[in-house]
UniProtKB/TrEMBL annotation:
UniProt similarity note: Belongs to the 1-acyl-sn-glycerol-3-phosphate acyltransferase family.
Location relative to the cell: Membrane
Protein name, UniProt field: PCAT2 acyltransferase
Keywords annotated in UniProt: Acyltransferase, Lipid metabolism, Membrane, Transferase, Transmembrane, Transmembrane helix
The keyword rRNA-binding is annotated on this UniProt entry: no
Domain (Phospholipid/glycerol acyltransferase): residue spans on this chain: 70-156
Listed GO CC annotations: endoplasmic reticulum; membrane
GO biological process entries: lipid metabolic process
GO MF entries: 1-acylglycerophosphocholine O-acyltransferase activity; lysophosphatidic acid acyltransferase activity
Keyword match tRNA processing: no
One protein family per Pfam: Acyltransferase
Length: 160
């Protein structure tokens, strides 16, 4: 009985997750198509709302399809309360659920991740602070960019 359920559920879940991933890629592509400033200016208006609502919902749905149900206890800090949101140790695929629950903030990510097919487009739509491991000034530049975004008085989304 259990093996038969696994044989049926595993491919069904995989197909659903691939479909959700393609929808996320499509919505990220639409939101960033002909984007003014191309990563140097924050997304505004319908573009930002689309990223926040669509990607957040799709991410939560993907985790639900995988069998995870996340409940938030307490209140997530708003942008004016906390322009920088810290999540640790941020080393697994569970970090995406934190992003979904906090309204898809900007993240700090390796620059190489931006060139990954499908995931790179989704990641670029979050307007990440890209860290280059080859650049010796990268740490200083990253801190400066996070500070600039945190002091922007709400123009940029939260940084996680």
């Amino acid at each position: 009985q259990t093996v038969l359920q696994g044989i049926i559920l595993l491919p069904l879940r995989a197909i659903c997750i691939i479909f959700i991933l393609l929808l996320a890629w499509l919505s990220a592509s639409i939101a960033t198509f002909c984007q003014p400033g191309r990563g140097f200016l924050p997304l505004k208006g319908w573009r930002r709302r689309m990223i926040q609502t669509t990607l957040s919902s799709l991410t939560r749905t993907a985790y639900f399809v995988m069998g995870f149900q996340v409940k938030v206890k307490g209140k997530v800090a708003s942008l004016p309360e906390a322009p920088i949101f810290v999540a640790a140790p941020h080393s697994s695929f569970f970090d995406a659920i934190i992003c979904a629950l906090t309204g898809m903030p900007s993240i700090v990510s390796r620059a190489e991740n931006l060139s990954t097919p499908v995931f790179g487009t989704i990641l670029r739509s979050l307007q990440p602070v890209a860290v280059s491991r080859q650049d010796p000034d990268s740490r200083k530049n990253t801190v400066a960019e996070i500070t600039r975004r945190a002091l922007s008085r709400g123009q940029w989304p939260q940084v996680i």
